[in-house]
Amino acid sequence: MADGAAHKVVIIGGGFGGMLAAKALNKTPTEVTLIDRRNFHLFQPLLYQVATGALSPANIAAPLRSILKKQRNTRVLQGEVVGFDMAGKSVLLRDGARVPFDSLIVATGATHHYFGHDEWANHAPGLKTIEDATDIRRRVLSAFERAERATDPAERARLVTFVVVGGGPTGVEMAGAIIELAKYTLRADFRVINPATARVILIEGQTRVLGAFHEKLSRKAKDALEGMGVEVKLDCHVTAIEPDHILAKPDGGKAPAFRIDTETVVWAAGVKASPLGKLLADAIGGVEVGRGGHVPVNPDCTVANRPDVFVIGDLASCPGKDGKPLPGLAPVAMQQGEYVAGVIVRRLKGESPKGPFRYIDKGTMATIGRAKAVAESFGFKFSGYPAWLAWLFIHILYLARFENRVLVLFQWFFNYVTRNRAARLITNERPPETRSEIAPVR
After folding, report:
1. What is the SS3 string spanning the chain?
2. In this prediction, what percent of the chain has a pLDDT beyond 70?
3. Distance of alpha carbon 30 from its chain centroid, rounded?
4. Are residues 233 and 99 in the same domain?
5. CATH code (residue 193)
6. Which of 70, 200, 237, 296 has the smallest set of CB atoms within 10 Å of its CB?
């Protein structure tokens, strides 16, 4: 770096970790370049509400340039990173451009993990992007539309059977949202079918839902789901996903498989790190990524013997106080983003880092449905309406822009009062062909 030249920091990924790192570097002697394939920051925890028509995509996304427009030392590039030149300290983009760096922060997150069955992705989409959410919304709403036209009772029952695979927060939230959509929002919209008769089945491989929560809260979440009408199948493993059915084995896979006729499956069973982690590890050399593609990092979030390269968020395998890798949660990524920005600034001042990264666990929470949620925070465990209000407040607070907060707050209030979901749009689908038989109106 030439004398007087600003320290070049390149951040890959505009998610929670990358965004917080960029913000923390505001008004510092650095030249920040944020690179992302998309031109927006996405609030992923609310994607399930887009998938079930409660919110529109614009409610939970904000343009990166708009968020960072007041940071004079920061520029945003829309581009796809395809490699690294570690000797030349440059990031390589798909269009052939090279972006030089003095410090590199990689925060590209995670994607779906089908545990060796990637062919399932066509029939069981996950929920990580806006496109995923609108695809699931299309599949769910289209199933009701096709059921309205169906004349065969078995076909109609298959169409309004929905399976969610995975009992973590995303799976629990999706299952609860779909059953509420069917029982309340759509109940007067159809003339042939009764949407309230729809089946929503949640399949979890472990012995309880929300396995990261206290056992008491897991039990309350399961009871709440079943009280809403969701069929919860625990200790059960999916063995096949086909266009018109799935196969699953109960009792940890020991009992014979059973079949569920359905054409709408949502995958919430696992994630793996972005493929960019493997590219980075290979470029550095001598770094072995974990089974899920996570990059092992040092206590200060650097990689191997490269003090100029940081990996944070879902992409990183960072041990916590108990020695186990930290969970792939937004607060972890956000705290790591602020931490590595602090490390860079202290180095520029000639100071040593304050110490290794230490995650401060402020709690976890998951919503199940209307006025139903569970939460843990600083040793306190609570559920029901108080947990639901806390969940609302925290999620509003974490939205990127004031405009998003106002829009989401208004939409939630409207949804709560009317039980309506205004964003029930079926997009990217051709209208069904005219059939010779159409179910008569009852």
Report:
1. CCCCCCEEEEEECCCHHHHHHHHHCCCCCEEEEEEECCCEEECHHHHHHHHCCCCCHHHHEEEHHHHCCCCCCEEEEECCEEEEECCCCEEEECCCCEEECCEEEECCCEEECCCCCHHHHHCCCCCCCHHHHHHHHHHHHHHHHHHHHCCCHHHHHHHCEEEEECCCHHHHHHHHHHHHHHHHHCCCCCCCCCHHHCEEEEECCCCCCCCCCCHHHHHHHHHHHHHHCCEEECCCEEEEEECCEEEEECHHHCCCCEEEECCEEEECCCEEECCHHHHHHHHHCCCCCCCCCCEECCCCCEECCEEEEEECHHHEECECCCCCECCCCHHHHHHHHHHHHHHHHHHHCCCCCCCCCCCCCCCEEEEEECCEEEEEECCEEEECHHHHHHHHHHHHHHCCCHHHHHHHHHHHHHHHHHCCCCCCCCCCCCCCCCCCCCCCCC
2. 96
3. 31
4. no
5. 3.50.50.100
6. 70
- Does pTM surpass 0.90? yes
Q: How large is the average pLDDT for residues 117-133?
A: 96
**Full domain range(s) for residue 94:** 7-37+79-112+272-348
Q: Give the pairing type, strands 364-369 and 316-317.
A: unpaired
Q: 384 falls in which pLDDT band (50, 70, 90)?
A: very high
From 291, 313, 348, the end of a domain falls on 348
Exactly one of 31, 131, 155, 173 is catalytic; name it.
173
**354 is a domain residue:** no
Q: Which of 6-15, 115-124, 417-426 has the lowest mean pLDDT?
A: 417-426
| 160 is a domain residue | yes
The CA-based dihedral angle spanning residues 267, 269, 274, 277, taken in that order and rounded to the nearest 10 degrees: -160
In a domain, 221, yes or no: yes
Strand partners, 202: 164, 232
Identify whether 429 is a catalytic site residue: no
CATH number of the domain within which 321 lies: 3.50.50.60
Same domain, 184 and 198: yes
What are the tens digits of pLDDT across the range 147-173?
999 999 999 999 999 999 999 999 999
| Overall domain count for the chain | 2
Task: Give the separation between CA 188 and CA 161, rounded to whole angstroms.
Answer: 19
Residues 237 and 277 in one domain: no
Do 254 and 134 share a structural domain? yes
Same domain? For 265 and 276 the reply is: no
In a domain, 208, yes or no: yes
Instruction: Looking at the structure, tell me whether residues 294 and 265 fall in a common domain.
Output: no
96 and 224 share one domain: no
> How confident is the model at residue 434, as a pLDDT?
42
